Amino acid sequence: MIGHYAKAQFKFTANNSSNNFKAKIFVENCTTGRCNGKATIILYDKITDQEMQTFTSKDLDFGLTEMQNAQLGWLDLGKYQTPLIFGDFNFDGIEDLAIRNGNNGAYASPSYDVYLSANNKFVLSAPLTKLASENLGLFDVDKKNKQLSIHIKNGCCFDKTINYKYDAKQGLYEDSSVIEDSSIPDYVTVITQKLVDGKMKKTVQKFKFKDYYNQ
């Protein structure tokens, strides 16, 4: 199986992005400093070396260092260089996986396909993939508060953060949000919403620009 991919594609390993898994990556295009295009990712158990699952990406976009030459054969990607991101995205204590799939987010930011672990397999999550594909990059993961946060921007003067919770029964739902609107000169309007007893409670406050951003 590996021989089929290795003949025509650039080859990488990702051994440091997870405590439980490692991967072999085959990607279509690599130029100086960057790789992208169609890709195949084969995931292995880190302890047993057993092949676990195979994934594809339409555009596995990631950067290379000045010292890395993809023409030379197998290259090991650094922990923060790999286009594979492992984390517990639904807070069930089990590692999940996000795979880079182009730059389809807002302002051409990175987009990801998100897979949740279920019965020793990774299953594509449509809601989490949507969150990770339509906003400013991958969502932030807050382990302490068990929430995911996405960021939205519209020009210079509008920023919005939405915080989501993940419930085993009802799935993903919006828990709170904060809008910072500085479209009025010298002022910032802050609109906060919080889910209380099943209903969104809204608060609107206005601050002087210099006071709000210097506090």
From TrEMBL:
This is VCBS repeat-containing protein.
